[in-house]
Specification:
With 237 residues, the protein is an alpha/beta fold. The chain has 8 helices and 16 strands. The strands form 4 sheets. The protein has a 5-stranded parallel sheet, sandwiched between helices. It has a 5-stranded antiparallel sheet with strand order 11-10-9-13-12. Strands 6-7-8 form a 3-stranded antiparallel sheet. β15 and β16 form a beta hairpin. The longest helix is centred in the middle third of the chain and has 19 residues. The chain is elongated and about 60 Å long.
Length: 237
């Protein structure tokens, strides 16, 4: 069962979504909220896998709510405003339901979330790590990757790309960047952007808070600048 909550300041919309959640066999409704602040407090104290979330709400936008979550659950936006779709996907939302929507659309989004949650729940079978290398499942094979060979890792929606030195083709694996980050030694790798982890030992050039690997420029986002700057200060002559 997937622990699910719904957040919407409109009573009728909240009632519709919670009704759909109760109707879906693999979803377990564990909370319903008409404001994001109560939901935030609930998420801090309870395990939540999935959130159906309105965007346009008084006091706090749904997008800002997602940014405030720590190790947050999967998000499906359910809103009447199509203009927020791009921002929603930038926040790694599983899906974007445009009101009014029916149960068929709701179920398709819920099943997409279930697939992602199941993939992450099997992360221990996807790769194993030690201090020098990892084994990772890619294209029906298990490959050994030495940490020293990794340049950087890019997170896509449902998979990651691992870029290696002296190899023009990245290794693809169905995993989330967050899962991979938890397995890598933080003394050697650093998350510098929502979509990128870099090998600190492989950094040779930094230009205007962009890490340069050949023709690729990886930005250090505001969220990670302080930690990255600390790394630079500790290693600066």
């Amino acid at each position: 069962m997937i622990n699910t909550i719904a957040i919407d300041d409109e009573p009728l919309a909240l009632k519709l979504v919670t009704g759909y959640i109760r109707k879906t066999p693999f979803l377990q409704l564990v909370g319903e909220f008409d404001n994001p602040f109560s939901a935030m407090e609930f998420c801090e104290k309870n395990h939540v896998d999935l959130v159906f979330l309105d965007i346009q709400m008084p006091d706090l936008m749904g997008t800002d709510f997602v940014r405030m979550l720590q190790n947050g659950p999967k998000i499906i936006f359910a809103t009447a405003f199509e203009k927020f779709a791009i921002e929603g996907y930038r926040l790694d939302a599983v899906d974007y339901l445009l009101k009014p929507f029916g149960y068929e659309e709701f179920l398709a989004s819920a099943m997409k979330a279930r697939k992602l949650i199941e993939l992450e729940s099997h992360k221990d079978n996807s790769f194993e790590t030690n201090e020098e290398f990892l084994f990772i499942k890619s294209e029906y094979k298990i490959r050994r990757i030495n940490y020293t060979d990794i340049l950087y890792i890019e997170g896509m929606k449902d998979y990651v790309k691992i870029f290696l030195k002296n190899d023009p083709h990245p290794i693809l694996s169905i995993n989330s960047l967050k899962v991979l980050e938890s397995k890598l030694p933080d003394s050697r790798f650093m998350r510098v952007h929502r979509s990128f982890i870099v090998n600190l030992d492989r950094i040779e050039t930094i230009e205007r808070f962009r890490i340069v690997f050949g023709n690729v420029y990886i930005p250090v986002s505001d969220q990670y600048k302080e930690v990255f700057q600390k790394f630079l200060d500790e290693n600066f002559l």
